[in-house]
Amino acid sequence: MLEAVELRKVFKGKTAVDHVSLYLDEGESVGLLGPNGAGKSTTISLISSLLAPSSGDVRLNGNSVIAKPQQLREVIGVVPQEIALYEALSAYENLKFFGRIYRLQGKQLEMKIQELLEVIGLRDRQKELIKTYSGGMKRRVNIAAALMHDPKFVIMDEPTVGIDPQSRNHILETVRLLNREKGTTVLYTSHYMEEVEQLCSRVYIMDHGRIIAAGTTEELRRILSGEDTLLLQLDKPDEKLAQELRELEPVRQVEEMDSGLKLIVTKQSHLLSEVVQAAERHRVQIINIHVQTPTLEDVFLHLTGRTLRD
Ligand SMILES: Nc1ncnc2c1ncn2[C@@H]1O[C@H](COP(=O)(O)OP(=O)(O)OP(=O)(O)O)[C@@H](O)[C@H]1O
């Protein structure tokens, strides 16, 4: 088990990570979810011993690794947000370089490189220089580089931000394969709820440097078990209508979206006629009303009053 215990990191008087405790059991796929600036990258750097905490501890199978990180470094692979590759070398040459750092050589090194190129779907382009790759392809090579030493724990920092759909799918597939078929323990950081819901069995939600909720996706959704999400598709946006709905008793949250409004409301409230009347008063036409069970995104909205992408 890899564990963070009451981690804190203060940068020049600003607390970026505030008493964060989390654990990864072997074989788990765990999500760390939070908006930009929540402290996810700093938490990852602390857990992987790239950064020293202001206080708190990181433990591998019960033993602190802060003073002696070597043991941890052998079993952990970190995929940072920034691409850390040699642009003037090919994908093959980059992986060879990283493999050598982990003391792989000869046939073993060659096999590992080809295995990982296959996993990331770039075997046929391995001889091309990194600088000719798309952002998504570079990300995929960056992931392979972190896997050269067959780490037991893989920590990924928002690996799908700003990349093309094909690379995104490849990355999600790679995470699945690593976790479900190879049994690798994964900590997956993201601000995309749907990715975490698909990939992870347990989730930590982080905001302003703190863990504000933790549990299985089911448990977290149960935070909203007494509530429904109401999606109103409107013919035009209307700030005043949103404001009026916010003041209705059963309405917990109102979020404005491109096509209308999203309301988190108390279950079984007889709200629809009030909503329809309010829309009529504001001369807004309701094109469609959809009631759905809450998502993790809604849980986040409920806990913080903000959306993940704010
Ligand atoms: N080296 C540093 N020096 C000063 N402040 C920092 C440093 N690194 C991070 N911070 C601050 O700590 C806070 C948390 O940043 P962090 O990068 O961990 O968040 P994040 O959740 O990973 O967000 P993002 O998705 O934008 O990377 C931010 O306010 C950031 O400005």
Search tags:
Alpha-Beta Plaits; Rossmann fold; 310 residues; binds adenosine-5'-triphosphate
Structure description:
This is ABC transporter ATP-binding protein. One of its GO terms (molecular function) is ATP binding. It is a peripheral membrane protein. It is a single chain. The chain is 35% helix and 29% strand. The chain folds into two domains: 220 residues, 3-Layer(aba) Sandwich (Rossmann fold); 69 residues, Alpha-Beta Plaits (2-Layer Sandwich), CATH 3.30.70.1340. It is globular. The protein has 310 residues and is α/β, with parallel strands linked by helices. The strands form three sheets. Strands 6-7-8-3-9-10 form a six-stranded mixed sheet, with helices on both faces. A four-stranded antiparallel sheet has the order 2-1-4-5. Strands 12-13-11-14 form a four-stranded antiparallel sheet, sandwiched between helices. A hairpin with a 2-residue loop joins strand 4 and strand 5. Adenosine-5'-triphosphate (ATP) binds next to strand 2 and helix 1. Adenosine-5'-triphosphate binds next to strand 2 and helix 1.
List the helices and strands and how they pair.
Layout: E1 2-11, E2 14-24, E3 29-33, H1 40-47, E4 55-60, E5 63-64, H2 70-75, E6 76-79, H3 91-101, H4 106-119, H5 135-147, E7 153-157, H6 165-181, E8 185-190, H7 193-199, E9 202-207, E10 210-216, H8 217-222, E11 227-234, H9 239-246, E12 251-257, E13 260-266, H10 272-281, E14 286-292, H11 296-304
Parallel strand pairs: 3-8, 3-9, 6-7, 7-8
Antiparallel strand pairs: 1-2, 1-4, 4-5, 9-10, 11-13, 11-14, 12-13
Helix pairs in contact: 3-4, 3-5, 5-6
The structure holds adenosine-5'-triphosphate.
Adenosine-5'-triphosphate binds at residues 11, 14, 16, 34, 36-42, 158.
